[in-house]
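PROTOCOL LOG
Step 1. Enter all chains and additional molecules of the complex.
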Amino acid sequence: MFELKGYLKTKSRIVESALNNLFTNCISYNLLSAMNYSLKSGGKRIRPILVMASRDMLLKQEVKDPIDYHNVMPLACAVEIIHTYSLIHDDLPAMDNDDLRRGKPTNHKVYGDAVATLAGDALLTEAFNVLCLLSKHHEPEKVIDVIKYVSRSSGMNGMVGGQVLDIENDGVHGVKPDLDYLYKTSYGKTGELIKASVASPAILYGTTKDVDNLEGYGKAIGVAFQMVDDVLGATTTKEQLGKSAHIDEKNNKTTFIDLLGVDETKKMATKEIEKAKSFVSSYGTFAQPLISIADYIIQRNH
Amino acid sequence: MFELKGYLKTKSRIVESALNNLFTNCISYNLLSAMNYSLKSGGKRIRPILVMASRDMLLKQEVKDPIDYHNVMPLACAVEIIHTYSLIHDDLPAMDNDDLRRGKPTNHKVYGDAVATLAGDALLTEAFNVLCLLSKHHEPEKVIDVIKYVSRSSGMNGMVGGQVLDIENDGVHGVKPDLDYLYKTSYGKTGELIKASVASPAILYGTTKDVDNLEGYGKAIGVAFQMVDDVLGATTTKEQLGKSAHIDEKNNKTTFIDLLGVDETKKMATKEIEKAKSFVSSYGTFAQPLISIADYIIQRNH
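Step 2. Run joint prediction.
Step 3. Record the structure below.
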């Protein structure tokens, strides 16, 4: 019987250990400190865990020794670094203006807006340097394909594009967000990097069909993740969430809750999760972690 | 007789044309518009021109047809994109809080702080996607080496690291900037990306010795560029400069002028330029553009 909690704990420890040793030298002590403050401040590490789970499924291997992951660890770290930079910038006063993240003061609250902005920039830049480490273990053509894929997923038509759509959804930009708009925003803002986490290993180890399947899985759990976030944002307190609650209300943002209500949003999220699972069901027992992670997304309460 | 003005004009037109066609589709019209606003707002295009000049010197070719540059154009565009993102973030209220850039309102003055921050993020991310286009024309191993080199030059121990040192030089961070500190800041903030522009073509076309020579040239003109900037910042009006003058004074920043005075700073800059030229003198006539660009940096008045 597969036990997700232990699985996530074991895998997140492997990532933490890799992240802890990643950035140790910098011409500015303050910058290094700011980068590591956010990088080492915990979080679920879902994206790097998806990298590992996808790798295991494609190679049909259950990995016991952390060393077996060294071939994908640069990818696992890079997606977490990109996620981290996006949180730092997202929390800035110019954006969500959030003071709390994972129960701790946000980066700019500790280091100031300028250094927080630059810590985000440095993390994003270094993520691509880290991706280049894949070339120690993989054909250079494939590594370039991964760099292309990750940059597209994170860029103007991926994560950052989705973030701008999200910002324009503020009641003052003249945008009237309908369901399509919220889907496009969620795919971009949340789905694209999750998609890259789960589909990039297929570039290294799989076929085009594997890439397609894992893209389908990734986009679906990404949008479900955003829907659950909206539900939690509307129904949870600051203490439970570990970050400021009801922030969307404060910012006049239209959410899935506004268009569908809490119950219907939960139903739609469940539908996305079922779709996600259907994309990986054909991989048999080795798909179990990805299936459990999909279920976990719908069940999480913080 | 080599004529620099015409050379710069011809080469910058080639870059402009490539940059104009680079970003045309985006899920957010506003983001695309913000990215292109800064990318197409002129500037000297020194970094991409250095890419082309370095290529010509290494291949001992005088190029007449723009098409001959298609092999290095992704690199030329990428360094200009990275330079552009850094200017957008540098102008933000959280940083230099500058309203004017190249005689036009800065990005955040037009698009707001949030979209300007994200336009910078998108440009930085897409720069690495653009670098991947080099793989159409070069061995993938070399392309990965270029991506590594550019990301290191732009990251925590390169441009961004230098920017943080620069920010901490504000009279309130407890830093007492001496000449070493200003050199380290200038190498990082300005020298590293210039170095990457001129040395990356040597990764594609040259030897380790070529990389070393062009690194030496790039770092020296980079620091000279910063010294001349300090001189211009202290002696020029807003109208002449096309951006706010005396900004360093306003921000309590210690500059080369404060430590050395205007005349001695000019002398030091001249010394750096002579050093730069010595690194490329052995390449004969094909080094002429790089030598003239070095001379131009010391002679520029805006």
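Step 4. Note key features.
Chain B has one domain: 4-299.
Residues 131 and 147 of chain B are 7 Å apart (CA to CA).
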